[in-house]
Design a protein that fits this description.
D-amino Acid Aminotransferase, Chain A, domain 1; six-stranded mixed β-sheet; 19 strands; about 20% helix; globular
Amino acid sequence: MAHAPAPMLASPAGDLPALDGWMVEPKWDGIRVIADATPRTVHLWSRNGIDKAHQFPEVSEALAELARAEGSLTLDGELVAVDRMGKPLRFQALQSRHASGRGSKNVAAAATRTAFVAFDILSASGRDVRKLPWTVRREVLESVVAKSARGLIRRGDSYPCGSAGAKRLIAAAQKEGWEGLILKQKDAPYSPGQRSPLWRKVKLEHEQEFVIGGYTLPTEGADRSHLGALLVGYYDDDDALRYAGKVGTGYTRATLELLGKKLGALHRVASPFADAPKRREIVNWVKPKLVAQVRYNEMTASGILRQPAFQGLRDDKDAKDVHLEADTSRKSVLDALNCGS
């Protein structure tokens, strides 16, 4: 594949179906990419078609080595930050990679350990397998990518819903505070570019992307620079940007500096929000181009975030694609995942 392949997308959990014949997998907290690898060339295509191979040179080199051993292949998976023991970390640990350019790839690689977790395969040895059922693709994936706790290229876990493995996975998700889980129907083909009901994302905590539409300046005497809080929102069904509140916590000095540079280049006079409230403090409005990952406690009936915290910038998703994701209650999700067992 010479171009950026479109990934298959999961639908919100909604009212979950009977889950007999479904698989349960971790919802990795990283950057979704399609890895297109040959013995000589590797592309790491993000959801919006950006090749991130130069930001993850060690992963690219490992994928090229895998292609030399197994033949050219195209994998769907997630780039995740990992600790010294190889354990995946949260998304914000990848922010140093977000800021890195082509000239700083070695610095970025040294600053943040990463791995590529493969959870599906689109082609193997030049053979397109996307139309095959998930079960067959999984067999192919297992034949070329090893399950490893520390490998740069590793295979993600997947267990039949209701099995002992699934119960262990769910228990770990609750204990360790995972963002969520992914459900996949066993017979599902790989549907590029489609948000399929045969894949479901179930959220165990409140976190999603929001569009940055403005920012306030730091208050007098505040121990920070560049900005006080981000004003964020999401697009509704009529493509209007709806205000969702201020995000004033979760920043490091490095992210404040990065945000300051990027926001300064996006200045605009008028608010981009269709419904921004009047504010007493000065707000610097910006073109709605940047996407922030935000964790929050809950959303009020009027659509305002409670206790939001900034997790990082996302350059792998277009702002126009950011819509409010419906939440399914934690209890109903966990009850359904027991699959009647």
